[in-house]
Amino acid sequence: MASVTRSSGPSRRDRRAAWELRFLEATERLLREGNTFTDLSVDRLAAAAATSRATFYTYFEDKGDLLRRAPRYLLGDLRDANSRQWWATATRSPDARELLRATNDIVATYRAHQPLLAALAEAAAYDERVAAEYRQMVAEICDNTRLRIEAGHEAGVVRALPSAEVGSAVTWMVERVCDQMVRTGPPEQDSTIAVALAEIIWSCLYLEALPVTAEERSNSHGGGIEQHELRGRSPGPGQGL
Hints:
Oligomer: single chain
Shape: elongated
CATH architecture of the largest domain: Orthogonal Bundle
Structural class: mainly alpha
Number of helices: 11
């Protein structure tokens, strides 16, 4: 009887994820060149991804389907920008400098993906499925933020708060500030916006001013994540924005 060996190649799920990321990165490159998402044809998207129209339709129903995959990748990047620093200490021994680094990373990630975020905002106005996917991803982060607030309260470092409402309010505050102020504003504002976000979050959780020096505030920008390409991560359990 012939032996059966398992393929060592990538799984179907891995191939799909790789192609999704490849097309999203190609889309972002075209948008940075000044194109609008509405004007991009499937043929042009396929050419930018160095593949064929047939490959596009193997993995996507249409252009709207492609854009509906973007929130999970974008919010994965946003989650990673924060969770690997701030929430790692927030429920045990809060570190204001880590929070400031986290908010700078979030702002930097929004800045880096500005064209794709603008396309999402455009598409969400006429494609309810795009809007629903984006809301769902933010809702997941709201819930994970709630869990972190509750853990901090149980550890005695976060004051008593209505965790679900505060988790949602903090998450949507960050999302809306970045959408309205970072996506449409000049880069020179970014470090000031990051400080403002850190101040609000710290004051909300601990009822005190952010304990960092003026020098640390002014030097906070530029200490964020080193590269901001889409990394194909999606928000995971237990990690908030």
